[in-house]
Specification:
- The protein is built from 14 helices and eight strands.
- It has a single domain, classed as 3-Layer(aba) Sandwich (Cytosolic phospholipase A2 catalytic domain).
- Strands 1, 2, 3, 4, 5, 6, 7 and 8 form an eight-stranded mixed sheet that branches.
- The protein is 46% helix and 14% strand.
- It starts with a helix and ends with a helix.
- Strand 3 and strand 4 form a beta hairpin.
- The longest helix has 27 residues.
- Helix 5 packs antiparallel against helix 14 and helix 11 runs antiparallel to helix 12.
- By secondary structure, the chain is an alpha/beta fold.
- Keywords: Hydrolase, Lipid degradation, Lipid metabolism.
- InterPro entries: Acyl_Trfase/lysoPLipase (IPR016035), DUF6363 (IPR045943), NTE (IPR050301), PNPLA_dom (IPR002641), YjjU-like (IPR037483).
- This is Patatin family protein.
Length: 297
């Protein structure tokens, strides 16, 4: 994957701590469990970068709202307005855009926009420009404006309509950069905690739906289709890079001990609680290690 110009043009702070959050749809319940434990233990970062669910759930770190992610997912997992094929057929989005990014944060489980805006921690959402096929790393300083970027970061091809922002069309950040550790390092964040949602032995395989994706998007968005076609190779290289940076002492990695066994869609609150609880257990084991790592600034 070629280097994205949007990284080169960002200001590069010196010796900054970062939190890197992989996506993974409902595997994000694991991440929420880990990050809730981290918040409860007062762990802070200079910057956070999230991809897909890593962005939509990770924003609660900046708004300092532990428990919010699991609470609203359990409460709404059976609500067709939140996530359903009914929503997909009716609105073009599996996860209903108006419901998820207006009704939910403004009325049902309020997203603390004031706390988000006042927290000096920088927060970035990764999106994919579907015309160039390249990642864009958008700094989300204002909570209200940022909701649209978070939505774009989590908008899966086929199951979401592209999100128009700043004259471009965006979809899931995981298409082009699933684990943006290198991108965050290029911005100047050089001591990073990385939370992954797959266990150590995981190897990503080629997407079996590529023939359909080529047929659906190949003529109009060939560069995005190319990114999707090589995504498994790029992802596996990113995992190797994370491991190397961990061995060099520049990254601290948290991941599940075994496959989480939860789908991209989950209507079972018990499964959500189970994966969240696994995240909390793993998070508790890593608290002291993370604190020691972050103190070596």
């Amino acid at each position: 994957m070629e280097e994205n110009e949007s990284v080169k043009n960002l200001n590069k702070p010196d010796k900054q701590t970062g939190l890197v959050l992989e996506g993974g749809a409902m595997r994000g319940m694991f991440t929420a469990g880990v990050t809730d434990v981290m918040m409860e233990n007062g762990i802070e970062f200079d910057g956070i970068i999230g991809v897909s669910a890593g962005a939509t759930f990770g924003c609660n770190y900046k708004s300092r709202q532990p428990g919010r992610t699991i609470r609203y997912n359990v409460a709404l997992c059976k609500d067709p307005r939140y996530c359903s094929f009914r929503s997909l057929f009716k609105t073009g989005d599996l996860y209903g855009a108006d419901f998820c990014y207006r009704v939910l944060p403004d009325e049902l489980d309020v997203f603390d926009k004031k706390a988000y805006n006042e927290n000096p921690t920088a927060f970035y959402a990764v999106v994919t420009d579907i015309e160039s096929g390249l990642p864009v790393y958008h700094r989300c300083d204002d909570a209200q404006e940022s909701l649209a970027w978070m939505r774009a970061s989590a908008s899966m091809p086929v199951f979401s309509t592209p999100v128009a922002l700043d004259g471009h069309l965006y979809l899931d950040g995981g298409i082009s950069d699933s684990i943006p550790l290198k991108a965050f390092e290029d911005m100047g964040y050089n001591r990073n905690v990385v939370i992954l949602t797959q266990p150590a032995a995981y190897i990503k395989k080629h997407n079996k739906t590529m023939p359909y994706l080529r047929m659906r998007f190949g003529r109009k968005y060939p560069k995005m289709v190319k990114a999707l076609d090589v995504r498994h190779d790029f992802y596996n290289k990113q995992r190797a890079y994370v491991r190397r940076r961990e061995s060099e002492g520049s990254a601290y990695v948290v991941m599940p001990d075994f496959p989480l066994k939860i789908g991209s869609i989950c209507h079972n609150p018990d499964d959500l609680r189970r994966v969240y609880a696994q995240g909390r257990v793993v998070g508790e084991k890593h608290i002291e290690g993370m604190k020691a790592f972050l103190e070596k600034r």
